[in-house]
Design goal:
With 309 residues, the protein is of the alpha+beta class. It has 2 domains: 73 residues, no CATH class; 229 residues, Deoxyribonuclease I, Chain A (4-Layer Sandwich), CATH 3.60.10.10. 34% of the residues lie in helices and 23% in strands. The strands form 2 sheets. Strands 3-4-2-1-12-11 form a 6-stranded mixed β-sheet. A 6-stranded mixed β-sheet has the order 5-6-7-8-10-9, covered by helices on one side. A hairpin with a 2-residue loop joins strand 6 and strand 7. Helix 3 runs antiparallel to helix 4. The longest helix is centred in the N-terminal third of the chain and has 22 residues. The N and C termini lie far apart (62 Å).
Length: 309
């Protein structure tokens, strides 16, 4: 019976290490699985109660519950009313990680036609998607498409409204920056796709983007993208700090392993698609629970400008 206490304590040690992501990106990689590790530690602690490990089991259960609560505050559904307030109806943004090898683009087009967002931001715009995006040019005549020297493709920003200024494709197509005119006010939209965490290049990539993130206008910025990082991670926090934005809560898990069966819940996956808003933008975000042929769920963002109150 000693096996269960050992599993519980090992899970607890790894869980604790994930809180030191600012020290080294290896620790930050562990934090993405915080709810999974907390759940494992708590389940393994249950048999320990009957094996003479009551004190250790209680400590493990308490620590696991605290970790679960801290992550739940990030992913619980948000109350949008206080955030958006009254006044002018909010604008809408749709964000999607298309999946570079998506075999059902018609599902994507159907969702766009149904929701008719003001702006669409995209990740994994591979070569096969470029022709498809041209079909949207009538509805979204303003497009900033960034190609990437990779099979997974780049990012894109598409809008019904005219661009307020020249945009930019940066970091080998992993970042698109595009100001869009909203009734005389320019909102800078950023479509961002980060690498996988350590031992991959995510930390170095964020470092290389630091200057461009600092140069964003801050207050009137909306960043959307697959950050490959949970909202409570040091990686997401660094992007928010550099860009002078805040991470929107209430989205929940958006990614699950593509080979898993359709009945496998997304809530058991990872919350790695994020929305970050500047101080002049009131916004709320939610995931759309609809399969589009991607291993990511799309995000709908309702937003408005403080100056329009």
């Amino acid at each position: 019976m000693i096996l269960f206490p050992v599993i519980a304590w090992l899970a607890l040690v790894v869980l604790a290490a994930g809180y030191f992501g600012l020290i080294h990106p290896a620790f930050d990689s562990l934090c993405h699985f915080r709810p999974h590790l907390a759940g494992l530690a708590m389940v393994a602690a249950i048999p320990a109660f009957g094996a003479g490990w009551k004190k250790s089991a209680l400590i493990t259960m308490a620590a696991g519950a605290a970790a679960l609560f801290s992550t739940y505050t990030w992913v619980k559904p948000a109350n949008v009313a206080p955030e958006l307030g009254s006044g002018k109806a909010p604008y809408r943004l749709l964000h999607m990680n298309l999946r570079f090898d998506n075999k059902t683009p018609e599902r994507v087009f159907s969702l766009i036609a149904e929701l008719q967002p003001d702006v669409v931001t995209l990740n994994e715009v591979s070569d096969s998607w470029l022709g498809h995006l041209e079909q949207l040019s009538a509805s979204y005549p303003y497009q900033r498409v960034c190609k990437r020297n990779s099979v997974i493709g780049g990012v894109a920003v598409m809008a019904r409204r005219r661009f307020a200024a020249t945009g930019h494709c940066l970091h080998d197509g992993a970042m698109a920056i595009q100001p869009v005119d909203f009734d005389g006010v320019a909102i800078t939209f950023v479509a961002l796709h980060l690498h996988w965490p350590w031992p991959f290049q995510q930390s170095a990539q964020i470092g290389s983007m630091a200057h461009d993130l600092r140069e964003l206008p801050g207050g009137q910025t909306l960043i959307t993208g697959d950050l490959n990082a949970a909202p409570w991670s040091a990686a997401s926090g660094t992007v928010a700090s550099l860009s002078k934005t805040r991470i929107l809560r209430g989205i929940g898990a958006t990614w699950r392993f593509k080979l898993l069966p359709a009945w496998f819940p997304y809530d058991a996956g990872l919350p790695i698609d994020q929305v970050l808003a500047g101080s002049d933008i009131r916004a709320s975000a939610r995931r759309i629970d609809r399969a589009l042929g991607s291993d990511h769920l799309p995000l709908m963002v309702n937003f408005k400008l403080s100056v329009h109150d």
